[in-house]
Design goal:
Elements lengths: L1 E5 L2 E4 L2 E4 H8 L5 H9 L7 H10 L2 H8 L2 H6 L5 H31 L25 E2 L4 E3 L2 E4 L2 E3 L12 H9 L6 E3 L7 E2 L19 H5 L5 E5 L10 E9 L2 E9 L10 E9 L4 E11 L2 H7 L12 E8 L5 H11 L4 H6 L9
Antiparallel strand pairs: 1-2, 2-3, 4-8, 5-6, 6-7, 7-9, 8-15, 10-11, 11-12, 12-13, 13-14, 14-15
Helix pairs in contact: 2-6, 4-6, 7-10
Length: 357
């Protein structure tokens, strides 16, 4: 994606997308996948006219390529003529936004490393909040409404650890379920900012998991224990997931990292989870979750190692941190929710999921 703007456009795969449209959906908590058609059909929406202008920007060859796509043909139904061309244009625009927005988010996060007050913290609703060294703020400073963090009549969200903007939803629900608002710091998403009366987000129904694993074995662990999972058919698309338990001076450190596919590194970081377990207290004394952003060379280097010995490859950006002791069950619930759609992690912490999916 080309992030430099010219004449009010952003180039995604060499195709111009109007910056007004890009910025609108980058700030949308639901995103273009579910909202583009609704907005395109709403003549009262401020961005509706821009979408019509955008469709006229697409070249004929691009529209024809979409119309020849088998997946588009399956979903295009009975559309014909100009209506079919419009549907093809919306299909193309959706794909460009779904690719370009996650890429822009990662670029913003990595480019702002070292910036003492990156986006969105200059917004008046959060300008008074003090950031920690990882650019996180206390979750307790916000009123939680469904998946939104509300403050001063403005809605924000936790930075999603993968491309899907709703991937932070289950993490937030676990933090609330375990009553951890007062002891959790979170990184706000740089783009998703909406007036409270205009903030719409999805509410989901899905089991979250946190049943205990064999903690008796972890209590007496003398040597490092580690493994690697290849994703099943219904897990999120990734190269693999590493995990390790490492004993250190009366504590056991748990590391887990889900490595993205090599072709996805521009739009997706790895999900990285760290916890410290006190074998004496039988409690978790620290938890944090982050993303690691790799370029292709760093991804190649990462393949020669394991999470337990990978060191500091890539750029790490923290998503949340819990600053209190929590139960082992709580750690399992939070970890599984952070890795939502990763069936291997859910299964490891006790979810009743068949091994072949």
């Amino acid at each position: 994606m080309t992030t430099n703007t010219k004449n009010g456009v952003i180039l995604i795969d060499s195709i111009p997308v109007l910056t007004e449209i890009f910025d609108y959906f980058a700030a949308d908590p639901i995103g273009p996948l579910l909202n583009l058609h609704r907005v395109a059909s709403d003549s009262k929406n401020q961005i509706n006219y821009c979408i019509s202008e955008q469709l006229m920007l697409f070249e004929r060859t691009s529209i024809d390529a979409v119309k020849a796509d088998k997946q588009f043909q399956f979903f295009s139904g009975t559309h014909k003529g100009a209506e079919l061309d419009r549907e093809a244009g919306l299909w193309l625009l959706n794909r460009l936004l779904m690719k370009g927005i996650p890429e822009a988010r990662l670029k913003n996060l990595t480019d702002s490393l070292g910036n003492k007050r990156p986006l969105p913290y200059e917004h008046p609703a959060v300008a008074d909040l003090r950031l920690d060294s990882d650019c996180m703020v206390p979750l307790s400073c916000f009123r939680v409404k469904t998946g939104a963090l509300m403050r001063a009549e403005t809605g924000f969200t936790i930075m999603p650890p993968i491309e899907s903007t709703n991937s932070q939803y289950w993490l937030l629900q676990s933090l609330l379920h375990e009553h951890l608002q007062a002891v959790t710091a979170v990184r706000l998403d740089p783009f998703i900012v909406q007036p409270a009366n205009n903030y719409t987000c999805m509410e989901y129904r899905m089991w979250w998991y946190g049943r205990p694993l064999d903690w008796a074995r972890i209590d007496t662990l003398k040597a490092e224990e580690h493994g690697r999972w290849a994703p099943g058919k219904l897990s999120t698309q990734a190269a693999y997931t590493d995990f390790a338990w490492t004993p250190r001076d009366g504590e056991v450190h748990f590391l887990c990292e889900e490595i993205p596919l090599r072709d996805d590194v521009q739009s997706r970081g790895s999900r990285y989870f760290h916890a410290i377990y006190s074998t004496e207290q039988k409690r978790i004394v620290h938890i944090d979750g982050a993303i690691r952003v790799y370029n292709t060379e760093e991804w190649d280097c990462r393949q020669a190692s394991h999470v337990r010995s990978a060191g500091k490859i890539g750029k790490r950006i923290k998503v949340f941190r819990i600053d209190t002791e929590v139960s082992r069950d709580c750690m399992g619930a939070v970890c599984s929710s952070f890795f939502v759609w990763n069936n291997d992690v859910a299964r490891y912490f006790g979810a009743d999921i068949p091994k072949d999916i």
